[in-house]
Amino acid sequence: DLKYTPAEVEAKWQKQWEDQKTFKATEDPTRQKYYLLEMFPYPSGRIHMGHVRNYSIGDVIGRFKRMRGFNVLHPMGWDAFGMPAENAAIKNNCHPAAWTYENMAYMRDQLKQMGLSYDWDRELATCDVSYYRWEQKLFLEMYKRGLAYKKQSFVNWCPSCETVLANEQVEDGGCWRCDTEVVQKELEQWFFKITDYAEELLECTNKLPGWPERVLTMQRNWIGKSIGCEIDFQLDGRDGAIRVFTTRPDTLFGATFMSLAPEHPKALELTTADRRAEIEAFIDKVKKTDRIARTADDQEKEGVFTGSYCINPATGCKMPIYLANFVLVEYGTGAVMAVPTHDQRDFEFAKKYELPLVVVIQPEAEQLDPATMAAAYTESGVMTNSGQFDGQKSESAKESIAVWLEQQGKGKKTVNFRLRDWGVSRQRYWGSPIPIIYCDCCGAVPVPDKDLPVVLPRDVQFTGEGGSPLATLDSFIKVDCPLCGKPARRETDTMDTFVESSWYFLRYCCPDFEGGMLDKTRAQYWMSVDQYIGGIEHAVLHLLYARFFTKVMRDLGYVNVDEPFTNLLTQGMVIKDGAKMSKSKGNVVDPDALIKRYGADTARLFSLFAAPPEKDLDWNEQGVDGCFRFLNRVWKLVQEHLQVVQGAAALDAAGLNDEERTLRRAVHKTLKKVTEDIDERFHFNTAIAAVMELMNTLQGARLATPQAAAVMKEALELVVTMLAPFVPHVTEELWQTLGHTTPLSATAWPVWDAEAAVDEELLVVVQVNGKLRSKLSVAVGMDEEAIKQLALADDKVKVFTDGMQIRKVIYVPGKLVNIVVG
Ligand code: ANZ
Ligand code: ZN
């Protein structure tokens, strides 16, 4: 067929791949496995260009690795629980399940139209009971071990979504989904004890060389390990003490007041009668601001004096006790020894409320004076006003003061993590029910194994009144206590959908396994994921939870790996006219329309060619058009040479003339570059560019001899093969056109002929002021500037140019460089 018609070609090969289950993955211990995974989509309705890009990137790697002989697992599924389904249900008066499954069907079609090499037999949807049932079982195993527990706590609450948000889901004080300002609310909530794994989660960030440093840094900061000590401050005139956490024991002698979180358990007890009204009003006010705003640097520091004092254990001085808005109850001990001279927040606070300043660390260069200081001095220096520690370096005084406190039983060294336990309760319907029953006699009772799973009931009404319909559904709530048989109530909270995405990559190893969460042998074969690909927006949330789950499941005996993802690629965004594609900006390009107009191969090619994977991709129509024209050129070149190819003699590499050898060199150099660009660097854009360049060379080639035809035949076959991971449909078709009966997807990736790829060299002499000083061997085709630089850097040349001024460098092509010095 002389005309390239993508629709026809693509339908044909998609059908063949589907019928023959080309990409079905089977565990085979004799073969080396490669587990490739892109973050699974939320079934929002349609795929967007970000998906197209993400999955195209993955598909290149998958197809390439397959051709390189790996046993590739490349699965796809649906992150199918979550709020949008409920919101859509309220808005359109349909059931979240119906909405979700319809969307999945539509998007599955779209993905199939892209020709992605998935093993569709492993498809899973997290809203299927066959999936979340195992999550409930795991929840109970975690409950048994104290890794899932319930506590009363202040939670981030989105008044618009009417649900609890994890800290990770609060962005700049707003809800990550709807941007509504988040408020604090006290509720009984289920938590996963991720803090038990804080140390290991941190430690292992040093064992992930295949992750972007940026992501590792974000994870480390999120875990936030602080080394310091806890110090007890006796209350003045009464029993008891206040314990603080500090990373700066070296500043102890400079602590002049105490700041407590407004929610600190001792806050009211320490408040004297005359201060009570003011303190209560302050607590009320602070509770209404969310924790992100409270800790923001530019937040006005505010506080109220309780009327009580405590004693500095080092100086014996009386310190007034304040409540302060920037002290958080859930970090450290919820109390801070305030050192206004060396901590900026304390400095601002002290200035505002006229509290005393004592300098205890002097910088080497200047003399600090509390009366004139404009800001806290937060660096290290020499100890002063600190009794026996005076004169020591502050860095070493950290240790000496900690030891001194320990000896007197007034303090001890501790480690603190910023990481909080993961709140997983959601007051929503469309999620996995938490398998717990509450009984007035027996308390919280796990649903017995034989009664699992707790199936999410379908017969619910969506009023739009907010709150979960489960909470009022008697047929769900009313249940007999599994222990005593008396009437009891079911938990009506469902799990955070991040729970489902924390182990889906494990379930892909054995999605049909009915004997439990994981088939150990199969999971052991595939894990860990060799390459994970997704957006940078998941750098903290999803990736940390997935790492945590892997470690929990390891400790429960399900898997034998410590880390889920060996290599991580975070792809850039797709932007148009300089902005992220979004409905609100009206700059969305619809993949359906694109595929309809140009075909999937062009859509894939453009999204791979226009930028390296990690960079943002700037969408432009001309670029898409250019890719389409390129594929047409490839198509045409093959068609035009069919007769030549069919009649070509066997290639005799040793018997080629100069022209033929030069052409063949270009072909094999390209193969080498494309192979290395794909395999080592994922530089798909430069790989594609190299093939485009080769195409230009081939289009100008003369076919004067039988060997020239043989070289052309090899060249066309290699061009088609090299493009296969990027544009799989058109290349399969051309491969068949070229006379092959085995499909390209089942063909091994070719190895370049190293000898043919070697650059021909030529000898260039180097003169300094006209005298021969050196000879250079340079590649044919090396550009002038590079040759001049090479000449100037030559050791033998440098003897004559060192210390001289270079006046001119003259190049006579292919022959000589003359350096004029003076
Ligand atoms: C005295 C001090 C003096 C401090 C100084 C710092 C500088 P990171 O590194 O984040 O762990 N802090 C302790 N608990 C707090 C809480 N619940 N809310 C707000 N701030 C709290 O920070 C540790 C430091 O943060 C601690 O060390 C404490 O102030 C404060 F020149 O103690 B520091
Ligand atoms: Zn009971």
Automatic annotation (TrEMBL):
EC number of this enzyme: 6.1.1.4
GO cellular component term of the entry, any:
cytosol
Instruction: List, alphabetically, the InterPro entries matched.
Output: aa-tRNA-synth_I_CS, aa-tRNA-synth_Ia, Leu-tRNA-ligase, Leu_tRNA-synth_edit, M/V/L/I-tRNA-synth_anticd-bd, Methionyl/Leucyl_tRNA_Synth, Rossmann-like_a/b/a_fold, tRNAsynth_Ia_anticodon-bd
Say which enzyme class the record assigns: ligase
Q: Which part of the chain is the Leucyl-tRNA synthetase editing domain? A: 220-405
What species is this protein from? Trichlorobacter thiogenes
- Residue ranges constituting the Aminoacyl-tRNA synthetase class Ia domain according to the UniProt record: 419-619
**One term of GO molecular function:** aminoacyl-tRNA deacylase activity
Q: Name one GO biological process term.
A: leucyl-tRNA aminoacylation
- Reaction(s) the record says it catalyses: tRNA(Leu) + L-leucine + ATP = L-leucyl-tRNA(Leu) + AMP + diphosphate
Name this polypeptide is given: Leucine--tRNA ligase
Pfam families associated with the record? Anticodon_1 (PF08264), tRNA-synt_1 (PF00133), tRNA-synt_1_2 (PF13603), tRNA-synt_1g (PF09334)
Record flagged with keyword Nucleotide-binding:
yes
Positions contributing to ATP binding? 583
UniProt motif 'KMSKS' region: location:
580-584
Domain Methionyl/Valyl/Leucyl/Isoleucyl-tRNA synthetase anticodon-binding: start-end pairs: 661-785
Q: Which gene does this sequence derive from?
A: leuS
